[in-house]
Amino acid sequence: MKNIKNNKTILAVIPAVVVLAAGVAFFCSRSGNTDKQCQETVERLQKLETADISSIEDEIRALSEKEKPTGSDSEEGVLGDILTDVQIKQAFQGTVIVGDSITESIAEYGFLDTSIVVAKLGLRIDDADDQINTAISLNPSVFFLSFGANDLEIYNGDSSAFIDAYRVKVKQIQNALPDTAIYINSILPIQQSAIDQSPALAYYDSFNQALRDFCDEMGCTFIDDTFLVDESMYEPDGEHMVYNYYPKWLTYMAERAGLV
User: Fold this and answer.
1) Positive or negative, the Cα torsion across 153, 155, 160, 166?
2) What mean pLDDT do residues 53-75 have?
3) Is 123 found in the same domain as 50?
4) Are residues 96 and 38 located together in one domain of the fold?
5) Full-prediction pTM beyond 0.70?
6) Which residues contact 253 (CB under 8 A, 6 or more apart)?
């Protein structure tokens, strides 16, 4: 009876392997992906058609582990379908977003309420004690941070001092909420007209690189939102964003955090 059972298992698994290989090949052709890794995956699956059951199980397990995302739940720099207002509210239940006026507009535009958005006009990371404490008290499963526009002017190109201040707050969150995932948003690009008025704003790119390195150090996930922005999304001040930016930003945050 055991041999019959094993034979049935093999017969069940091998067709699945064939279908899986065909599916991978179809995806590669549809997406225009011709890279070596994709082709190698198809070839490895095709070879399993003649393998024994233990080899099939081991190989599929290895392929599954290889394809797991590392460091985030979606590919960086790729935005999926924009979430509806209802989907945004559902996705961010149990989370918190702390930041400055750019973050504050999430609530002002009605996408999320102030039980999730803890933000303030002009807020800097070094001056966010009240907001961080409030957010911690909400016991979120996911903790988003979004600072930098105001900090650029205070730190005037000194990204190390900016990161030192950020480190204090992140350690506070990690100590209070050790099981909560922390996601740190990038500083958005700033238009030249604003930089002309305040030259320290020009350092946003180097500050973003410092944030990326800092996230690696602290075990957080860096969310690079810069690709979401186009010239039509700026307010006249060259720093803040209009309404149309926010569904894209919230969708991307949700994707990166695995909320959708």
Assistant:
1) negative
2) 49
3) no
4) no
5) yes
6) 97, 144, 183, 185, 223, 259
